[in-house]
Automatic annotation (TrEMBL), chains A, B:
NCBIfam families linked: cinA_nterm, molyb_syn, PncC_domain, PRK00549.1
InterPro entries to which the protein is assigned, alphabetical: CinA (IPR050101), CinA-like_C (IPR036653), CinA_C (IPR008136), CinA_KH (IPR041424), Competence-induced_CinA (IPR008135), MoaB/Mog-like_dom_sf (IPR036425), MoaB/Mog_dom (IPR001453)
Species assigned in the record: Planifilum fimeticola
Lineage, highest ranks first: Bacteria, Bacillati, Bacillota, Bacilli, Bacillales
The protein's name: Putative competence-damage inducible protein
UniProt cross-references to SMART domains, sorted A to Z: MoCF_biosynth (SM00852)
Sequence similarity: Belongs to the CinA family.
């Protein structure tokens, strides 16, 4: 199936917003086995919109369109397509009833302009919008299926997940199922990972193997086509096993779970608590962990000890350690982790000290980072890293290293409990 | 001038990367007064690439193209355009010499595939790539100017800024200058800001007035066309004055300076230091501040006191305050700010305590946040906020509020010194 995606909105052409929908829909289509050949963006202009829709209809079996379903006069997507295909728009009573109920809840009546949002193509498939007033709608004409979806991400994504995706699957030949698994890697660059599984990527068929680099991590997505989920798993199994044999040491998880979520989940599962002492990461690790809902049950607190005075005064790192080895040293990392654990009365503590740049410090090079990890009943360990990139890149990589070390520690804990 | 933008790369159509270049180039073009009517993305496929380029040539005066200038066989942009326009490609000796010098520095010779990157259109304008091996090139044919630029952002953006932008300006009629000013607002939503200056937006001419919402802030961009910078400033002045009369109280700065950069700059200018005590923001404020290079000269440190034990034990908030008023209270915020200032020995300290959600705490509603601010020689103040949004939104808004309060404090300091 030959598909393309059109994003509608003058704000895209002014560069006021970045079109992330087309990438999202493309990923979803890739998983479904739908080939996307073009993306286009066009403004809220009736003639140009019709021109793009005409072109899309001439070259694609499936046209996914986002935006331009709002209540204002500028919102023209549905009207332009109706004109182009000469299809009547008819009221969709359930959508209108939903809209009226929604406005009634705010104590107002539906503004007249909004009623046009309740119009759909006669004979089309309507997708309910649970997060807004504009329903989505699909219509097939001249061998092309057009799918219109609202532009706001909070409306588009749930609608796609819940309604449009099953609809697209129903268009696919046969009763194929598409199943994917995502594996998350840390500590190995994308090119190195690709190098090690090059043959699997080059000779891929079913399942497909797609690496993707994202914020100092790499994910690998396996996607299988099969008659059912069990068969899909069987198809993926040998490839998964081969991948893990080669790069499994860098794999920390599966699915959408991030490193910080994994750490919080393991801490909560094991009923253990964490304290943090951060220097060059400036609170980033604490910040990442506390973004996770429920983290307050696991993270006791953190100290950002940006200066040696704070390392000594607040954390209680012995002055001798800093004077002798410097604040950026294995010894300082060890002392910071131990003192953070005492200070917060936590089961574990992690510390980071290093040089994030842009300038060297204590005659130590930018990118030199030490991570300490203290745990009740175990000797405190520290790790030395040499990280590349700019200041923010070094901070992010150092934070992710610390989280990776933590989750490895907690994996051991899991094995013991 | 009628323009459009084409992004080339199969990874875009697979959704592996989001096309941010088209938005970037669109913003730049909007400032230059070039109207962009279309964005397109197409894969590394010779025929489809030629088809898109043919279409673009038929409808636009200017076609900006990113990507597909790499050394591999998949990189086809230049070749496709050369075939379409039937234009010869010729070696560009300075680009080839740069490439050879670059590889020599790594102790290797130029891989044969890379030499094609040194080919350009005969009679075209070449843009030097200081951050990679692929030069950019512009060529005019049949009334359309095609500009080819490399895809990696670290190559595209500097090339655009330094070379392509002046080239585009040279294409514009007359000797018009385009000048813009960006004003940054906090504490007012985009729709409220728009509402208050609606007439200025609706009746805009020269200068143009463009509001843009971004991460709990709003910016307003004024853009004037004039013969020179002075005239542009004169054209903008009455509109700027009218805007500031209406919403100036929410304006914290101009240009690209963020709230955290502003706070750090003011602290460094005034040679003052800061300590932080964060509860519901989980280290976010410390994190934002320490992202700024040079922040180590101003931020002494921070404590993330996620639990009442840490508030008492580490920060030294009196147990009575927490028992009587709760950890989320005006009194706790005041005590946290004062104790943070003592602990870090800083000139100022800021504290945050609140309920970020998803669940209420201490019978207090999600979104209730207190911010404390302690300063040497002044009474400690605390502020009560009711913030909307999800957990991350509340954390971000609370952090920005704290930074906004801090920069207001420091503005006073500026007036006094």
């Amino acid at each position: 199936m030959r598909g393309e995606i059109i994003a509608v909105g003058t704000e895209l052409l002014l560069g006021q917003i970045v079109d992330t929908h087309s990438a999202y829909l493309s990923r979803e289509c890739a998983e479904l086995g739908i080939n996307i050949y073009y993306h286009s963006a066009v403004g809220d202009n009736r003639e140009r919109l019709k021109e793009i829709l005409r072109l899309a209809g001439s070259r694609s079996d499936l046209v996914l369109i986002t935006g331009g379903l709002g209540p204002t006069e500028d919102d023209l997507t549905k009207e332009a397509l109706a004109e182009l295909l000469n299809l009547p728009l008819v009221p969709h009573p359930p959508s209108i009833a939903r809209m009226e109920a929604l406005f009634a809840r705010f104590g107002t009546s539906v503004p007249p302009g909004n009623y046009k949002q309740g119009l759909v193509f006669e004979g089309g498939t309507v997708f309910e919008n649970r997060n807004g007033t504009a329903p989505g709608v699909a219509v097939t004409h001249g061998g092309t299926t057009y799918v219109l979806m609202p532009g706001p991400p909070g409306e588009l994504i749930p609608m796609f997940e819940e309604e449009v995706k099953p609809f697209l699957i129903s268009l696919l030949p046969g009763d194929e199922r598409i199943v994917s698994r995502v594996y998350r890697f840390f500590g190995i660059g994308e090119s190195h990972l690709e190098e090690r599984i090059k043959d699997l990527i080059q000779n891929q068929g079913n399942p497909t193997v797609a690496p993707l680099a994202k914020e100092a991590e790499v994910t690998l997505r396996l996607t299988a086509k099969a008659r059912d989920a069990d068969e899909a798993e069987r198809i993926m199994e040998p490839v998964r096993r081969e991948i893990m044999k080669r790069v499994g040491g860098f794999c920390y998880g599966e699915g959408e779970l991030s490193l910080e979520e994994l750490v919080i989940r393991r801490l909560l599962d094991q009923k253990r608590t964490l304290g943090l002492a951060e220097s060059c990461t400036g609170g980033l690790i604490t910040r990442m962990l506390t973004t996770v809902p429920g983290s307050s049950g696991a993270v006791k607190g953190g100290v950002v000890s940006y200066t040696s005075d704070v390392k000594k005064g607040v954390l209680g790192v012995p002055a001798g350690v800093i004077e002798r080895y410097g604040a950026v040293s294995m010894e300082a990392a060890l002392a910071m982790a131990e003192r953070a654990r005492e200070l917060f009365g936590s089961d574990l503590a992690v510390s980071v000290t290093g040089v994030a740049g842009p300038d060297p410090a204590e005659d130590k090079p930018v990118g030199l980072v030490y991570i300490g990890c203290a745990e009740e009943g175990y000797p405190t360990r520290a790790y030395r890293l040499r990280l590349g990139g700019n200041r923010q890149g070094i901070q992010l990589r150092a934070a992710k290293h610390a989280l990776f070390i933590l989750q490895e520690r907690l994996k051991k804990g899991e094995a013991q409990t």
